[in-house]
Amino acid sequence: MSNLYEFTCSIVDHCNLNCRSCSSYAPLASPWFMDEKDFEYDYAKLASLNAVVKQITLYGGEPLIHPNWHEFARITRRLFPDTRIQIVTNGVLLLQDFENIWNKLEWYDIHLSVSYTTENLVSSIKKLLSSKCGANIRWSIQPPKTFNLSPVDLLGQSDPNHYHTCSLDGCGTELSRGKLWACFMPAHVHHFNKYFNKDIEVTDKDFLDIHEVSSYDEIINFIKRTEPYPFCRWCKIGTPGLPGSPWSLSQKLIEEWTIEEK
Predict the structure, then answer these.
(1) Is domain 5-252 in CATH 3.20.20, yes or no?
(2) Residue closest to 42 by CA, chosen among 211, 243, 259, 251
(3) Three state DSSP letters for 13-42
(4) Domain parsing of the chain, residue ranges
(5) What is the number of other CB atoms lying within 10 angstroms of the CB of residue 142?
(6) Is residue 128 within 8 Å of 96, Cβ to Cβ?
(7) What is the tens place of the pLDDT at every residue in 11-32?
(8) How many CA atoms lie within 13 A of 147 on its CB side?
(9) Per-residue pLDDT reduced to its tens digit, 252-261
(10) Sheet of strand 53-59, all strands in order from the earlier edge strand to the far edge
(11) pTM above 0.90?
């Protein structure tokens, strides 16, 4: 059997926080909630390919603001009973509805991963989670980190060969809205385009239509191809010395997702 892979799915585009340089462009996104039936249609197709999936990550935006987020957990667990399933959250809603959220996570055996934002927020969340020490559910809080820029090349002149050493490799294969992407950036860049009135090009060579795929090996070959994707020329993630900063609020400035040409 081919290697194991992680699949990710953004079930909400927007967020209840406003993080600077958010890699999924959530501060720029209009409110959008994925339909559970569309999700099930896509992931049932993946399951039908006898895909060996190590992990499926539900994220956003902020996934817990979806009124039916637990339905995605239920569907995923039913289709992939042996797969590690996790939800990545900023944790804000845990402080407001902890027991209800916790019970659903426990029921469907979902790992909870909390992003590190502010020290005060994370400290409050950690106290809540620590109260459940010994429970079946697994949880983790991501360590403090520098938020690194994932910059867009506005001219589309980046060397696509940085694909071979891309730091985003292994970040998970995005499967959402019928499309399977090897990288999350082209899957979400339409928010950047709309907000800043840009035309960063995404082509039908940057993704697979999951419902036209006939075998899991076809997915493997797409993910592990040797040639860059067309979108790579719009990405400057390979630029040496990219700036990073602690978590902060977004001002929704284009400079948060681009770097100045020298």
Answers:
(1) yes
(2) 211
(3) CCCCCCECCCCCCHHHCCCCECCHHHHHHH
(4) 5-252
(5) 12
(6) no
(7) 999 999 999 999 899 999 999 9
(8) 18
(9) 999 999 986 5
(10) 139-141, 111-114, 84-89, 53-59, 5-10, 173-176, 179-181, 207-209
(11) yes
